[in-house]
Amino acid sequence: MADKSLTKVILTGAVAGVIGGGAMLYGQRGIEDMQATHQKVATNAVKTTPIAADTTATSAYNKVSDAVVSVLNFSQTGKDAFQEASEGSGVIYKKAGDGAYIVTNNHVINGAAQIQVMLHDGQKISATLVGKDAMTDLAVLKIDPSKVTTTAAFGDSNKIQVGQKVLAIGSPLGSQYASSVTEGIISAKKRLVEASSENGQNYGGSTVIQTDAAINPGNSGGPLVNFAGQVIGINSMKLSTSSSGTSVEGMGFAIPSDQVVDIVNKLVKDGQVTRPAIGIGLVELSAVTVDDQKSLLKIPDTVTGGVVVMSLTPNGPADKAGLKKYDVITGIDGKTVNGQADLREELYKHNLNDTVTLTYYHQAEKKTVKVKLTQKLAS
User: Taking every annotated instance into account, which residue ranges of this chain make up the domain PDZ (predicted)?
Assistant: First the structure.
């Protein structure tokens, strides 16, 4: 039974985080919960090398296909009885010591009583869960390394280009179609899409790679591959219908490899991911009308990007640092903040108890303040 993800936005897991506190959506819809921030952190991925002129889809596929697996999720039906509940995909990225490590989507293995993987040769073996992170929809599995002949290499998702050709590899509709490959292009390097977990928890926005390579139920957790044969993303969701109900084709999304590498390394090391928060609810400045920017925020006309503080966690990091409701954050650690994605990108490069420097406007006055990240993001 293939991964059941054909909903309005098929998140086959939630990819995002929050800044901390109840985020707000501004406009005619009123103030709503919207803790949408951007998960992007430093990566140790192998840098993408120039792709040779004679590189083909076939050569790229051959480099990575033997590392792609089907992931089988079994539920318990009795004392010693198990039944396959769903299937997805994964990719073996590391072989070291007593284990080989597989990255997949969290939703693929969520709730599993047992996990198996089917290797490229059709052999099925047991897998153990190393760690999972619902916020980025990633999980790491461990299997017997003696069964592994090939591991995949990560490319640098910061080096990808719109229009670049890519392959999506996995098990659409289940393991009977294992190692299926589809070809497409990168449609957008960074796309912020709304995302919810399978149990309905709203994680806000997810910053993902958009591609028109066909991604179907069961492809979740499989790799998005460049023509150098490097993994530049982990396929996670697709858009099947728009908010108006219109049928949509060719809009798939993948978690960028720079995020993947950071998260899987943390999962292998600690079994979990701990994120700092600054303790604010926010809305993007672009969502505020020009009239309200002048009358309510009272910021200079030259301020065209940033995030507006709509609420603060009492005694949280931002509150202690002196930020107020309607302040507009425009920078963090010297990096420009045009929106929530920029803020999250820099924030999640830090650890709990680190200190960041925020640049913000309190009405017409531009200020900077140091904020100690003493608050942990709720998981």
Answer: 287-339
220 part of the active site: yes
Known active-site residue 362: no
User: What amino acid is encoded at 246 in this protein?
Assistant: T
Which one is catalytic: 107, 156, 206, 257? Answer: 107
CB atoms within 10 A of CB 354: 13
Fold of the 276-376 domain: Pdz3 Domain (2.30.42)
pLDDT digits (tens, 9 = 90+) for 158-202: 899 999 999 999 999 999 999 999 999 999 998 877 654 444 444
pLDDT of residue 242: 55
Residue-wise DSSP of 196-250: E-TT--EEEEEEEEEE-S---TT-TTPEEEETTS-EEEEEEEEE-B-TT--B--S
Q: What's the rounded Cα separation, in Å, for the pair 253 and 211?
A: 6
Give the pLDDT score at 23.
36
Q: Which fold has domain 1-16+38-272?
A: Thrombin, subunit H (2.40.10)
Q: What is the mean pLDDT of residues 329-346?
A: 91
Q: Is 107 a catalytic residue?
A: yes
Q: Distance between CA atoms of 151 and 311, rounded to whole angstroms?
A: 46
Where does CATH 2.30.42.10 sit in the chain?
276-376
Residue 268 has pLDDT above 70, yes or no: yes
Sequence ranges of the chain with CATH classification 2.40.10.120:
1-16+38-272
Q: Indicate which residue of 3, 137, 262, 342 is catalytic.
A: 137
Q: Which structure tokens are listed for 261?
A: 């590498």
